[in-house]
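*** Residues and shapes ***
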Amino acid sequence: MNRSKGVSLLAQGVASCSTQATAYGQCVASRYQDVHKDMCVKEFEAFKQCVQKVVSKEKMVVLR
């Protein structure tokens, strides 16, 4: 897979997970003055899993 297809897959994954992205962004924004490691880990993990799920599904379609 070339680089532009990879970026396109990632962009599609992020766009498909707007609910999770919003929750993560709101969590970070609500405490931006006190940022620390793992402060929004639950929201980040939900976002990450959603993106990975979408990307893996789309990757299978592209490879066919």
Summary: The radius of gyration is 14 Å. Residues 41-63 form the longest helix (23 residues). DSSP finds three helices and no strands in the chain. Residues 3-63 form one domain.
